[in-house]
Specification:
mainly alpha
Length: 262
C-alpha cells in the first residue's frame, strides 16, 4: 500500500524550487558558493538543534528544526545532482530498497523472529552489503564518544558478545573504578587516562543495560548543573555579592538550597 500526502509533496516541491533558485545564476551568492564540505558544520548544528528540541519536548521548535534539517539534506542532494553524482530520487530509492531488504520478517518469508534475531539479521546484512571485514566497522569515528561507545557495544551484542544479565556489568564498573584508583595512586598520567576511559566505557555499558543513553544522561546532568549554577549566581547578586567574592561554603549552602527547592 502506498501512502501519499499531496500537501507534503507540494511543500517539498516548493522548497526544492526555492533552493534551485538560490543556487541559480542571479541567486544568492552565499548559497551559490557552498559545497558539500562547507555545509557540514551547519548540518551538524541543525542535527543537534533537532535533538535539543526533542529532549526539551518543544514541539514548535522541533517542527522548525526538522524543516531546517530537511533543507540541509535537500541541499546536499542538490549539490550531488549538480555534479552528476546522483539525484535525490536515487538516494530515496536506495533507502527504500534497503529497508525492505533488511526487514525480511516484515517483507519476506522470515516470520516469528525475536527482536534479538532481527537485530542480528540487520547487522549481518549490513556487514555483507558493505563488504566489511569486522563486525565493529561502520560506526562513524566523529560521533560523540559516549554515543559511539554505545553503538560499538550494541553491535558487539548483536553477534552474541555480551552478558545476559546486569550483575556482571555492575561488577565490571566496580572493577574499572578500582583500577582507576590504583592508577591515580601510581601517578602515571597515561595509565590514569586509560583507566578513566575504561570507567566511562563500563558506565555506558551499564546505561545500555538500564536502557538509558549515557549521552542523554550526561547532557541532562550538564543542563541541571548549568541551571543550578545560574541560580547560585543570581542569589549572590541579589545579596550584593558575586561568585568571585564568595567562599565555597557560601556557594555550597545556596547550591543545596536550590537543590532542595527543585
Amino acid at each position: 500500500m502506498t501512502l501519499k500526502n499531496p500537501k507534503a509533496a507540494e511543500k517539498f516541491d516548493d522548497l526544492m524550487e526555492v533552493l534551485k533558485k538560490l543556487r541559480a545564476p542571479g541567486g544568492c551568492d552565499w548559497d551559490r558558493a557552498q559545497t558539500s564540505e562547507s555545509l557540514v558544520p551547519y548540518l551538524l548544528e541543525e542535527t543537534y538543534e533537532v535533538i535539543e528540541a526533542i529532549e526539551e519536548k518543544d514541539t514548535e521548535t522541533l517542527k522548525e528544526e526538522l524543516g531546517d534539517l530537511a533543507l540541509h539534506i535537500l541541499f546536499q542532494a542538490e549539490l550531488a545532482q549538480e555534479k552528476g553524482d546522483f539525484s535525490l530520487a536515487d538516494a530515496l530509492a536506495g533507502v527504500t530498497e534497503k529497508l525492505i531488504r533488511r526487514h525480511p520478517h516484515v517483507f519476506g518469508d522470515e516470520k516469528d523472529t525475536t527482536l534479538a534475531d532481527q537485530n542480528e539479521s540487520w547487522e549481518k546484512a549490513k556487514q555483507k552489503e558493505k563488504k566489511r571485514k569486522n563486525f565493529l566497522d561502520g560506526v562513524p569515528k566523529n560521533l560523540p564518544a559516549l554515543t559511539r561507545a554505545r553503538r560499538i557495544q550494541e553491535k558487539a551484542s548483536h553477534v552474541g558478545f555480551d552478558w545476559k544479565e546486569i550483575a556482571p556489568v555492575w561488577d565490571k564498573v566496580h572493577e574499572e573504578i578500582e583500577e582507576l584508583k590504583e592508577a591515580v595512586a601510581g601517578g602515571d598520567q597515561e595509565s590514569i587516562k586509560d583507566e578513566l576511559g575504561d570507567v566511562f566505557f563500563s558506565l555506558v555499558n551499564l546505561g545500555r543495560f538500564l536502557d538509558v543513553s549515557g549521552e542523554d544522561a550526561l547532557r541532562m546532568t550538564i543542563a541541571k548543573f548549568e541551571n543550578r549554577f545560574a541560580k547560585v549566581e543570581a542569589e549572590l547578586k541579589s545579596r550584593g555579592s558575586s561568585m568571585e567574592n564568595s567562599t565555597l561554603d557560601e556557594m555550597d549552602e545556596i547550591w543545596n538550597d536550590v537543590k532542595k527547592g527543585e
